[in-house]
Specification:
Layout (H helix, E strand, L loop, with lengths): L1 H9 L1 H44 L12 H8 L3 H11 L3 E3 L5 E5 L2 E9 L6 E15 L3 E2 L5 E10 L4 E9 L11 E6 L8 E2 L15 H6 L4 H15 L5 E4 L4 E3 L4 E9 L11 E7 L4 E7 L1
Antiparallel strand pairs: 1-2, 1-9, 2-3, 3-4, 4-6, 5-6, 6-7, 7-8, 8-9, 10-12, 11-12, 12-13, 13-14
Length: 296
């Protein structure tokens, strides 16, 4: 040990050089590790955001609070306004231009839309959140054809600014067209200037019967094909459908190589007096095709 110390004293330049080389190697290794770690983390986050859009997953949303003014307004809602709010909250809103969705709950607009990350060209899921309260409403207006009617609402946002919310009710039957009556919603507060509609709710219709083993067996396990066929039928005839309810019955028609069953179609009804439509499905066991028909 004494000889080592004496060598160090007599050869300070050599020792200093060795120490510098060791320090340089250590710093390069540390920098490489940090850079590698940041690259992997950033890439993973971008890929996850892209997959969220493809799978329809929603990203986390920051919590927002209503202002005291908004709470006071909401606390004094009339029964008519409460009914409007209930209707808005129960609708599955999709962007008119097919570029996002809108959720309305407890005085909060949450818009989900895709955007491009500034650090890459990959799409990411983004959300725009705004609080609101309805402070006034205008009378119902109807165009000359009777196909479109609308109601205007004045709302106040979280900064105390007023905006116009327009709820349109579209009735295709007034123009001799088929399909359900549906809604459109626009507001200058929305991120999506084209607004939202529920005339494509059927794209995400709930069909719990597809998980029933008895129905699956009756159609040779072709549940995916059945779902696709039903969605195509609904988009053409009941685009506002939110759920299909199976009555649990299946009829086997052996002489015609067919199986028959039916669903009740839950839609966004404009009036409580509106009846719930039904659709009958025929599965042809020889051709493996599905055929839908309205039950009158």
């Amino acid at each position: 040990m004494n000889k080592l110390i004496e060598f160090a004293k007599n050869n300070t330049m050599i020792v200093a050089g060795v120490a510098a080389v060791v320090l340089f190697i250590a710093m390069n290794s540390l920098t490489s590790c940090v850079a590698h770690s940041n690259g992997d983390g950033s890439s993973q986050q971008q890929e996850q955001s892209a997959s969220e859009i493809q799978s329809g997953k929603k990203s986390k949303t920051r919590k927002v609070n209503l202002t005291d003014e908004q709470k006071s307004v909401i606390g004094n809602y009339s029964n008519e306004t409460k009914s409007v709010i209930e209707t808005l909250e129960n609708i599955k809103w999709a962007a008119v231009d097919d570029a996002g969705a809108l959720d309305i709950k407890d005085g909060v607009f949450t818009e989900t839309h895709s955007d491009t990350d500034s650090s890459s060209s990959k799409p990411v899921v983004k959300k725009t959140v705004n609080t609101f309260a309805i402070t006034a409403s205008d009378q119902l207006n109807i165009d000359q054809t009777g196909a479109v009617s609308y109601k205007l609402f004045t709302i106040v946002d979280g900064k105390g600014k007023d905006h116009i919310l327009k709820l349109s009710t579209v009735n295709p039957a007034a123009n001799g067209e088929g399909g359900d009556t549906y809604y459109q919603l626009t507001c200058d507060l929305f991120k999506n200037a084209n607004g939202y509609t529920n005339n494509r709710s059927a794209e995400n219709v709930t069909i719990s019967a597809l998980d029933d083993p008895n129905l699956s067996k009756a159609i040779d396990g072709r549940t995916k094909a059945l779902k696709q066929s039903l969605i195509e039928y609904l988009l053409a005839n009941h685009a506002t459908a939110t759920e299909l309810i199976w009555d649990g019955d299946v009829t086997f028609m052996y002489s015609s190589n067919a199986v028959s069953f039916s669903f009740g179609i839950q839609t966004t009804r404009v009036s409580e007096s509106d009846s719930i439509p039904r659709v009958n499905v025929t599965y042809h066991t020889d051709t493996h095709e599905f055929e839908e028909a309205e039950i009158q």
